[in-house]
Write a structure and sequence with these properties.
It is a single chain. This protein is about 35% helix and about 25% strand. Strands 6-9-8-7-10-11 form a 6-stranded mixed beta sheet, sandwiched between helices. The longest helix has 27 residues. It is globular.
Length: about 240
């Protein structure tokens, strides 16, 4: 069976073809604001798939996609009620974002547990998977891009900068000073959260980073073992196998 996996996040929406064995080469992403019936039709008109799995943190856009795909294909929307090999050790499972469950399942299928997966998106999430293969909770903080944009919008003179590795800590321009503050400061946030989490997680913890800013931030944070940009999609592939 061929699956269309949809990762509908706050900033962008990714479409990925997959089967039970692997992710396919075909992939496409659009800004989440652009998700509409017309756009969905254009994206999918030239590809073949047998079923659709939606992972969404944007209810309005999820509703559009569900209405569009339900007409023609079996469909599953990821939630805590989905069939999965992951146990949930959390007081209110319905509060767990579908993307966080997908990340945890992707880690569970590929890496040694206990583990912490850090997803650098619009928000940055830290999620803990125990040695008993259970989702245990984690941390949510503002994303690097969101903080950068907020600083620009809330000040009169600070520009919106393109984030990259700073050349040095002492900025010689407004942009350089902002770059150092954003990247070095954000790495400090990540290090402190990981320090606290590792004290509460028993065992030798594997730490995986994913998401848009993962490569930039992880290179300066000791203890992050690897960057895996496909971990969410791998989790969705396993969810598709279980639920479609």
């Amino acid at each position: 069976m061929k699956y269309l996996l949809i990762d509908n996040s706050n900033t962008r929406t990714k479409f990925q073809l997959a089967d039970a064995e692997h992710l396919h080469d075909w992939t496409k992403w659009i800004p989440t604001a652009d998700v509409s019936v017309d756009v969905l039709g254009k994206i999918t008109k030239d590809i073949h798939f047998d079923a659709v799995l939606i992972c969404s943190v944007v209810p309005e856009k999820s509703a559009i996609m569900q209405e569009f795909f339900t007409r023609s294909h079996p469909l599953h929307v990821v939630s805590c009620d989905s069939a999965m090999d992951l146990a949930i050790d959390y007081p209110n499972p319905r509060q767990i974002g579908a993307d966080r469950l997908a990340n945890a399942i992707g880690v569970l299928e590929k890496y040694q547990v206990p583990a912490i997966v850090i997803d650098f998106g619009t928000a940055v999430t830290f999620d803990v998977i125990s040695a008993q293969r259970a989702y245990c909770g984690g941390v949510i903080a503002p994303g690097l891009g969101a903080m950068n944009e907020y600083l620009h919008r809330k000040t009169a003179l600070l520009p919106l900068i393109e984030l990259a590795e700073p050349a040095h800590a002492v900025g010689k321009s407004t942009q350089e000073a902002m770059m150092a503050g954003a990247v070095y400061g954000y790495r400090g946030l990540v290090k402190e959260i990981l320090l606290k989490l590792r004290k509460e997680v028993e065992g030798d913890v594997t730490i995986i980073a994913t998401g848009g800013d993962a490569a930039l931030i992880a290179q300066g944070v000791e203890g992050i073992h690897l960057v895996d940009p496909q971990i969410t999609l791998e989790g969705l592939r396993h969810l598709a196998i279980k639920n479609l």
